[in-house]
């Protein structure tokens, strides 16, 4: 297995773990939905075992995301990879929903600026759960605008 393939497997595993946490799925619950053992889910999440295309499709269906979500923010998929013939086109970032006004970027964020490591923190998951527990979409949008304003002022 090549170094790039190992890196991709680890990245996909982190994305599985992130989504599992956001969807409040235990490893056992996800494993049961996939018809595998929870140990296999652990191996996928650690990047020890490679997730096949069919299994990745199943995961996307169960976790309700496009398959491309698992490859978003994947480092090393820049223009040098295109020149080396590893990619035919630049990967587009995952977009949350049709109605989302959130801007997306095809650039990979620096780890110090966030990225997937930040999304996997328990505090981040708690914040996301609390945010989506607000049933009024207008109030959620006002809260999002407030947080953005505070973040801009503090930087």
TrEMBL record:
Gene3D superfamilies: lambda repressor-like DNA-binding domains. One of its GO terms (cellular component) is cytosol. SMART domains: HTH_XRE. It comes from the Bacteria. CDD domains: HTH_XRE. Residues 88-115 are annotated as: Disordered. Keywords: DNA-binding. Residues 99-115 have a biased composition (Basic and acidic residues). GO terms for molecular function: DNA binding; DNA-binding transcription factor activity. Residues 16-70 form the HTH cro/C1-type domain. PROSITE patterns: HTH_CROC1. This is HTH cro/C1-type domain-containing protein. It comes from Bombella intestini.
